[in-house]
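Objective 1.3, modelling of assemblies. Example input:
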Amino acid sequence: MSDTKGDKTVFRSLGLGGFYGGGAEGMVDVKDGKILRVRPFRFDYKYDRESIRTWKFEKNGKTLEPTWKSMPSPFSLAYKKRVYSPNRIKYPLIRVDWDPNGERNPQNRGKSKYRRISWDDVTTIIANEITRIHGKYGVNAILMQGDGHGECKTINTPHGQPGILLDHMGGFTLQVRNADSWEGWYWGAKHVWGQGVQGMYWPAHNIVKDSTEHSEMVLFWGCDPETTPWGFTGQFTSSLMYYWKDIGIKQVYICPDLNYGAAIHADKWIPVLPNTDAALQLAIAYIWITEGLYDKEYVETHVVGFDKFSDYVLGKVDGVVHTPEWASGKCGVPEWTIKALAREFARKVTSIAHYFGGGYIRGPWSHEPARLEICLLGMQGLGKPGVHQHQLSYFGMPRMEGLTGTSFWNPEIMERLALPVLSSVANWQESALPKTLVHKALANKSTEPLKFMGTGAIEGSVASQFKEHSFPLVTEPETRIRMMWTDTPCRTTCWNGGNETEEALRSPEVECILAQHPWLENDCLFADIILPANTHMEVEDIVTNIRQGGQFADVMLCHKAVEPVGESKSDFEIVLEVAKKLGYGEQVSEGATTEEIQKKVFEYMNLDKLTTWEEFSEKGYYLYSAAKDWESDPAGFSRFAENPEKSPLGTPSRKLEFYSERLAKHFPDDKERPPSPQWIEKSDMHDERLSSVRTKDYPLLLMSNHGRWRVHSQCDDITWTREAPTCKITGFDGYKYEPLWLHTSEAAKRGIKHGDVIKVFNERGIVLVGAYVTERLMPGVAYIDHGARIDPIIPGKVDRGGAINTISPDGITSENCVGQATSGYLVQVGKVLPEEWAEWRSENPAAFERTYDSAAGLRFDAWVINDREV
Amino acid sequence: MKAFIVDLSICNGCYCCQIGCKDEHVANDWTPYAKPQPDTGQFWIKVQETIRGSVPKVKMAYTPNMCLHCDDAKCMAQCKSGAIYRRPDGLIVIDPQKCTGCKLCPDTCPNGMIYFNEDLNISQKCTGCAHLIDDNWDVPRCVDSCPTGALKFGEESDFAEQIAKAEPLKANSCKGRVYYLNAPKDFVAGTIYDPVEKEVVIGAVCTLKDKAGDQTLTVETDNFGDFWFNDLPGEKREYSLTIEKSGKTQVIDTIDATNAVNLGDIPMKLV
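Predicted structure (tokens):
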């Protein structure tokens, strides 16, 4: 018999949302210092099932209860491949033609290779650069990009660690993360129902139970419950959807693609053209108003501005009557289906479901469909039993006993833990740049400062949207970004204007780009110095799996699984090494040991009231019980629905604002986000509708959702997921291309066959992709996941990696909203001509000579000279 | 005797079985049960995707295919070196130390579930994670990785109820240790609308008649004007469809339902 158990078993959150944990718990078996396997967590590993009180949903004699096993996603189970990826950065690197004392050759960023350098030498160079930049240009000449998703860690949390050091040294310019997966709610919904949680429906307690019991239909509007939750909690929503089907809740999917949820759960799929949902919503409102199919009493008592909204719908504002016939021409849904949907929505108790992401909420003017959705829900009695907006299971799962709400950006906790995460949720520096405008700032040679309304900080208040900011600060008009310290960057592939960003990163104005990352990918390829960070498997930590909607909540000790790969260090240790060179070691570390911090987190969670440190460390995790009285928690807006005077909303009127006086006051001339939601055809910022003259050359609407096989840009190198037919398509040249979905008829028109290497393009550039010809997409649309690793053939122009955001609009959501608009834009798709290949090959032969590994894709050694070690 | 139960009605297509298998067997040496699986190219359990219908009446089906551990195992019968053997619990294993690399068994397997490893010069396939079962793990890795319970593993006697409902995936499929439930059937579907009123037609009586036989099926259009004839047999059939509403009748005479068919939006004038 073999020894199958290994030498030890450690615990991890296998989610990739970051911020201290989420879910998708896992067990990692380790043998001979290597990861043997990664498997689902058994919640009863150290607990008797009888000792834990669990929740239960019941309807029609059918029940749903937690299974005692977690449900990680495939890339979580394959995480061993990430740790040992051929793309891991194994030691510090410096660009071969970047000389801090001589020529810096910024024009070669994205093209030149790197050479190995020692930790000692590289930290000396970095310390000297920081000192030089501070002295010559001031502290705000250093931009820190340190935000966004990543592995779940607390002590060694990825992203934002450099901010601790730079803050101690007097400050820096902060890249402020935008509401990158829920823009419309942030910029739109807040003006209808108030602040919410980052703009989303809140309070949302207990809405999963409430919809289970009362909803007759759920509209999955631009929602894929079989994709976007994967990186956060794993696959609990899948079981919930099967359960909802069992108890007879109708599941209607409204989206351009037959997404992975629709493919197996939909009772009805209504394909709608990308970013035209506002037209469909207005037509639904038209039917309700003209046929009296809405909750007039609720609207009377819970809504302000209904008359103005109604006037617009009925054509009294601009002469356009927003009928189903009108909408059908915009959104591609047959007139009869629009009417049927409107009436069914009114007839049945209906909720709407989302889980971040998608084209629906990330297109140009995404605040409009967001606001219209809430108006529709408002017309059907939002907050009444079964009428909710779901961020599906992220909010609204049963409350846990003794689980105190913990925000780790709470200033009362140690800075070392709070500050890195603060950079993902708040603007905490005087000098700040919205992430969506960073490329504009880097390339800004004009004397005019960049002006913007709000910074887009995800925890920002509604009022923060009305404050004008500028970069540089008015007090220091000469400041430009001269150095970037970027932490696990993927701005080129995950944000707006990727190609413009690539060009900006090559700006001579920026003298030093320092990146830290576990994998050599995306913006790292434009860095001058690259430091190797390690993965969560290589550090000792503690995580709090208390958020985002899993079956259980727990806090777990994450003992180190394996030794660091190569010379990698944790993101925190990297910053500490630099800090020591600058004399800030003690301030940055706060003198705390790892075990001391683990104990502090135990205390922050108030676990001392529920267990003892000794028991916790012996079991290795604490598993919460469901609260005794969770079933009596009021669901969502139910209190507001029952009594709006007693339980008002946070809007100025304390009601749902179908017309926002506040927007009218602050932005009287805003044609893109008027006080009441509208259909926007075109603006100075965006010209991405089928009515555009651009359709002559770019007739297709491109939609992109978050990836099925990635979490944004994470996990693009897993050899095992890359074998799935919707993950990559192997081209004639052995290169694994990102699939671009095309309807059978659109492919036929262009002579494209499934599996062909083709190009998707517009004025902003060309992306090479593999043709995925399918009935899972409506005609007139090109669909692709965002976040593939860039592989620039011509940086800023042609990408082979499938990084679709390189050709996304470089503009923002709308003039006064610094969100991203990275879905719902015009493209064309076609065959790649032989002369194009020849031209690219002659222009940049190095791009074709780089080592490539069909199984894993891009490789570390492709970019490093004299590296034969794999 | 061990058995696998695969409930296709709750397979969500996540590929965790395929990935979990690789996590267990790639780069891990479980001799004498199995030598390491190559990093890519072998799928001891392989998810197969089928898309049925056309926009907007489209369904997907996922089927995890694996070694069936056949009762009448052709691979065992033809193996000259006695490397392929059946364990007392029914699982069939290729002994990696006895396999001589003759390459016959991959072609013999009617399901294509035996792979040849050129580097190790041996044939390889699913072992049912016998190395784990023998070390007191409750299930193989594919089953452990399945989030929905679509894959189950245990004593055949405990699954009597499911096995009674199981059906072979393909007509000539061997009987073995893997039982499939709820295989998706073909459908005929469509939407009926009134082209004058621009309204869907609700409550139209749709009758589907099998032209070869005398079977008729009847459904009414729902509030979206949709009709769905689900659970049609997956063999070559010709049907005719009769639609009746408000005294009007419309017939679509020839429907080739060899595969799932979406008849699209069907105009029907009611006035």
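Chain B touches chain A through 55 residues (CB under 8 Å).
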